[in-house]
Design brief:
By secondary structure, this protein is mostly beta strands. 11% of the residues lie in helices and 45% in strands.
Length: 93
Amino acid sequence: MFTGIVEERGTITAKEELADAARLTVRGPTVTSDAAFGDSIAVNGVCLTVTALTGDGEFTVDVMAETLRRSSLAGLAAGATVNLERAMRADGR
């Protein structure tokens, strides 16, 4: 679950086009400070799953074709600024 409150403005550092998806690498030191593989992070309001962490404030996510068609994520390129938000814990406010 997400609160809809943006925690940080991040930057797309890389975008790789895949057969039926795209792989985004995003710089966001705040949202990665306690992130782990498999965690959910909202990028411009789209819930995505962390597939890799670099340790220097970057994380990678795979965005499926359907998500690309139904969101604004397809138009992102390296250097784009995005809104980032960590998922809220079940016992959070």
